[in-house]
C-alpha cells in the first residue's frame, strides 16, 4: 500500500477518526522500552512507572535483566526501596520478604518457611536488545522477534552514536508520536535547526506495512542543510535532501534523514538515523528516550567525528526539550482543560497520524 | 426602590437565598474586563483565561483590539505561543495555520489553499473603553452601551489616577464582590487604613436600579479620615464622611468615597472613585483589576498630587493584597474543604449580597 | 484472651479481613489528641484539622482548654485568623462576630444585639490530661475515663521525659498504627538503632482486652541493646530484652521496652515507655505526636540523665522521621495509585493489625 498524501482530501469521511488523548487504557501486549541498558547497572534496583504500573528493574547475577511489580505483596511498599540480595532476589525494606525474578516469594521470615500463595507478584517479560531493556506488560506470549529493528545502535561504532537521551514529557504518548511522524511541523517549530529548505513544499509519501506506518519527504537539488554539510566532505553544498520516519505500533519510531548529490542514489549520501522511543508512563506523561546514529559515514578522523557526534546530540536535545516539548505539553494542557470533547480539524498532513490511530484502535480491541 | 437596611430582619425568609460559590457555570452574556488597555501593546499576543475559556488578545494594525479562542483548531496548541503576522492574523507555532480576528482560518500551508471548514475558531466581541479592553463571552448581541460608566478613568488627568492594579485572587468572584459591597468589614479588616471613625454605627442604605445594587453609608460630623485630610486643604479636620458602592451585574463595581465640611453638600468635599473590576478566571480564581481616581481635586500642585496618587495606590494595594485577599482565599478554602453544603447565617449587612445573588440567579436563567 | 501468634496460620479464613486505607469515614466518638498542652499557650488561637474538620483550640481565662469549629457561621472564614477577646470569646477577623467556648454567638455588631440562631457553631469536648489536650469529635457522651492511661507523662520528673515530638505523616493513621504494632519490622527498618538482637526470632504474644490489643516479644539472655546499656549501670551487658506495645482503639499506642538481668523479673530492669499518639488529619494524612518516658531509672546524676534523655529523643525522631515515614508514605502512595482494590498477603505477624481492624470495623458501626 503506497499512496501520495495529496490525494487525501481534508475533512473527508476517511479521516473522520480524530486522535484521542484520554483513552483511559493502554495497549499492554506490545514491546516498550523500559530503560536504556546503561540505566541499569548490575546490583541496582531501578523503579519505572510504565502504563501506570509500578515496575522495578534489576539484573540477575548472570547479567540478564528482570522486572517485577514494584509493590510488595504484603504491605504494598515499593520493592525498589529495598535491596538486591543473593539468589537474584529483591528484598522488601519493610519486613524482609524476598521475591525472585519470576515474582515468586522465595522467603518470608515471619516465621521462616511459611510463604503464603498470595505473596507472589506479577513479573514481566524483559529482553535486552539494541542497547535497551525491552518490556512486555501484557499476558499474551511475548515474541522478541516483534521488537522493531534498531540494530544500528549495536552495529555502529560508538563514535557515531549520540549519548542516550531521556526526557520526561508531560503529555500522552500519542501526541508525541504524532509530532514525530509529522514532518511538516519542522519548518515552524525547528526552523533553521532541523529540516531542509523547500521540504515544506515537497510531496509527502505515506506507506503502511502491517503495523508500521512510514511518512517520507524528498526535495531535489536544494542547498544542503548545515548539519549534513558538516557530515560530508566538500562538494556537497547542494543536492537532494530526504527524510522518512517509520512508526512501529504502538509507540516506537525510527527516522532516516540525509542528503546526497543531486540525482544520485540516497544511499550514496550521508546522514543519520533518529531513534525515538516512547513509553507511556501514565495517560498524561511519557518516558521519551532518543539517540542518533550516523549512516554511510564519510571518514573525517576521530576528532571531527566526535565533534559531529556532540553537535548532533546537542541540536536534537535542544529541538526536543526546548522546541517540541513546550508545544506538546501546552497542547496536552489545553485538551485536559477543555470541558467539552474536542474535535480537531483534519489536514492533509494528518493522514499519517490518522492511519496510526486506526491501527491503535484495532490493537486496543485485540489487546483485551 | 430604596430602603434602609435596618428594616431587613436577619434570618427573614426574604434573605433565605444563600450565596453559592460553586455554581459550575458563569454568566456568559455580559461585559467583563479582559485586560487593562496598557496590558496589550501593539504586536503582542496576550493569553488570558476568562470564564474557564482560553482567550488570546491582540491588536489589529489599526490599533483596535481583537480576541479569539487561544487554542488552534487543528492540534489545540495555544495560539498565544505563536506570532502575530501581517493581515491581522495569529499564526499557530506548530504548523503555521493563520487565524483572523473573526476566528476564520485564513491560511493552511498543508497544502496551501486548502482550508477545512472545521478550522474556524470562536471569536469574541471586544471593545476598548475607559482604558480597558472589554470582552463579551456569550452568543447574544453585545451592546457596548451596557458597559458600566467608568468615564472618570478617561476624563481625569493622569496625575489623579493611580496605576492600574492587578491581583490574581484564589477565590470565586462572588466572594470578592460580596467583600467589596460590604462596607461593614472595613472596621475589622482595614481598621486604621480605610474607612471613617463611626462608620460602623452608621445606617446602611440599599438601593437597586435594574441590575445595579448600591450600598451607601454616611456619618455626620466626625474626624476626617487621614486619607481625605491629606487630599484637602486646612479646615477639613472634621466633617461628614460618606461611601457608596455600586455593583454592576455580574461583577464590576464602582465606589465613591470622601469627606466634606459638616452639613455641606457631599459634592463640595473631596475624595476618590474606587474602580473594582472582577473577571472570573475559573470557578475558584478571579482576575481582580483596580484603580482609583480623585474627584473634586482641591489643587495643591503637581508634587503634592503625585504624592497623594502614590499614597492612595499603595494603601489600596496593601488593603486588597495583604488584608482582604488572605481572608477571602481562606474563606474559599474552607468552603471547598467542606464535605457538606454550607448554609451561612445571614445578617442585616448581607442584604446587599443577597440582592446581588437574586439578580445573578435571574441572569443565569436568562443566559442559557 | 491470650494466644501465641504462631498458632495463627497465614491465609487462614480468620485473617481474611484486609486492612483498608480508604474508608472515607472516621470514628468520631473517641478521644484523640488535639495538641500537646505545650502547643497551646494562653491567649493563642491554634488551628488543627482533625478527622477532616477544621478546629480552633484556645484557653479560657481560667486556663482550661476549649475547641470550636474553625469556620465562622457567617462567611466561613477561619476564626483562628481572628482574635481571642475578653469573655473567652473568639472574634472573627472579617466582621467581628464573637463566639464562646460552647460555640454560641455572643456578639454580632451588625447591628449590635441581633444574633441569628443560625450563627451558632459546633463546639467539641476537650480535656487536658497527661500533658495533652484531648478532643472528642462525636455527639455521644464524652467520658474522660475512657482516655488511655499515659500517667507516666505526668508522674515522671521532666528529666526522664523526651521533648514532645510532632510529625505530619502523609499516610492514613491505620498504616502508621500497623507499623507501630508490628514489632517485626524493627529488624529491617531500624536495624542497629532500635530493637534487640534475636528479637526477630522470638515468639510474639498477642492479647486483646476489650478495645486494647497488645503485642509482646521477649528474648532471653542476649547482648543488651546499646540504648539500654546506656541507661543501666555496669553488669547489664547481657540479659533478657522485652518489648510490648498496646493499641488503644482507635489510634493511640503505648510501648514498654527494656532489659533486665537474665532470668530476673522485667520490673527489676530498666527501659522506657514509648508514647505514640495518632490523630487523623484527613484520610491520607495524620498528626503523629510522640515522646518517651524512662521507667525504673537507675540513678546516674542529672548530667548523664540529660544526655540519655537527649539521645533517646534523637534516636526515636530519626527512626520515625527518616526510617518509618518514608516507607509508610511510599506505601500510601502505592495504595492510592492503584486502580484496582489491593488485597494484601497476610503473614503471621499481621495477627495484631487484623485484630485491630476487626475492632475498628465494629466501632465504625457503633459510631453511626
UniProtKB/TrEMBL annotation, chains A, B, C:
PANTHER family: CHLOROPHYLLIDE A OXYGENASE, CHLOROPLASTIC, IRON-SULFUR DOMAIN CONTAINING PROTEIN. One of its GO terms (molecular function) is metal ion binding. Residues 31-135 form the Rieske domain. Transmembrane segments: none annotated. GO terms for biological process: methylation. It holds the Pfam family Rieske. It comes from the Bacteria. Keywords: 2Fe-2S, Iron, Iron-sulfur, Metal-binding, Methyltransferase, Monooxygenase, Oxidoreductase, Transferase. The keyword Signal does not apply. This is Vanillate O-demethylase monooxygenase subunit.
Amino acid at each position: 500500500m503506497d499512496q501520495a498524501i495529496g490525494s487525501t482530501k481534508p475533512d473527508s469521511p476517511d479521516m473522520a477518526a480524530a486522535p484521542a488523548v484520554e483513552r483511559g487504557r493502554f495497549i499492554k501486549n506490545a514491546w516498550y522500552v523500559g530503560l536504556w541498558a546503561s540505566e541499569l547497572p548490575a546490583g541496582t534496583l531501578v523503579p519505572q512507572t510504565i502504563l501506570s504500573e509500578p515496575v522495578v528493574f534489576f539484573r540477575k547475577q548472570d547479567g540478564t535483566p528482570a522486572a517485577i511489580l514494584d509493590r510488595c505483596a504484603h504491605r504494598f511498599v515499593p520493592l525498589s526501596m529495598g535491596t538486591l540480595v543473593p539468589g537474584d532476589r529483591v528484598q522488601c525494606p519493610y519486613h524482609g520478604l524476598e521475591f525472585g525474578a519470576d515474582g515468586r516469594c522465595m522467603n518470608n521470615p515471619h516465621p521462616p518457611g511459611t510463604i503464603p500463595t498470595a505473596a507472589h507478584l506479577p513479573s514481566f517479560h524483559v529482553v535486552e536488545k539494541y542497547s535497551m531493556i525491552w518490556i512486555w506488560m501484557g499476558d499474551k506470549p511475548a515474541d522478541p522477534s516483534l521488537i522493531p529493528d534498531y540494530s544500528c545502535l549495536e552495529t555502529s561504532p560508538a563514535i557515531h552514536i549520540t549519548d542516550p537521551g531521556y526526557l520526561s514529557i508531560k503529555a500522552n504518548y500519542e501526541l508525541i508520536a504524532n509530532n514525530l511522524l509529522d514532518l511538516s511541523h519542522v519548518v515552524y517549530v525547528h526552523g533553521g535547526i532541523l529540516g531542509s529548505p523547500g521540504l515544506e513544499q515537497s510531496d509527502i509519501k505515506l506507506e503502511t506495512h502491517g503495523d508500521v506506518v512510514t511518512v517520507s519527504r524528498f526535495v531535489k537539488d536544494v542547498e544542503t542543510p548545515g548539519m549534513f554539510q558538516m557530515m560530508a566532505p566538500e562538494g556537497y553544498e547542494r543536492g537532494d535532501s530526504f527524510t522518512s520516519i517509520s512508526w512501529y505500533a504502538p509507540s516506537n519510531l525510527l527516522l532516516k534523514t540525509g542528503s546526497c548529490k543531486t540525482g544520485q542514489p540516497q544511499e550514496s549520501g550521508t546522514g543519520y538515523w533518529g531513534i525515538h522511543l516512547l513509553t507511556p508512563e501514565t495517560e498524561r506523561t511519557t518516558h521519551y528516550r532518543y539517540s542518533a546514529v550516523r549512516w554511510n559515514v564519510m571518514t573525517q578522523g576521530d576528532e571531527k567525528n566526535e565533534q559531529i557526534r556532540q553537535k548532533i546530540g546537542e541540536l536534537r536535545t535542544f529541538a526536543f526539550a526546548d522546541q517540541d516539548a513546550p508545544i506538546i505539553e501546552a497542547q496536552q494542557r489545553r485538551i485536559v482543560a477543555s470541558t467539552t470533547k474536542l474535535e480537531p480539524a483534519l489536514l492533509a498532513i494528518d493522514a499519517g497520524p490518522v492511519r496510526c490511530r486506526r491501527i491503535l484502535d484495532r490493537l486496543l480491541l485485540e489487546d483485551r
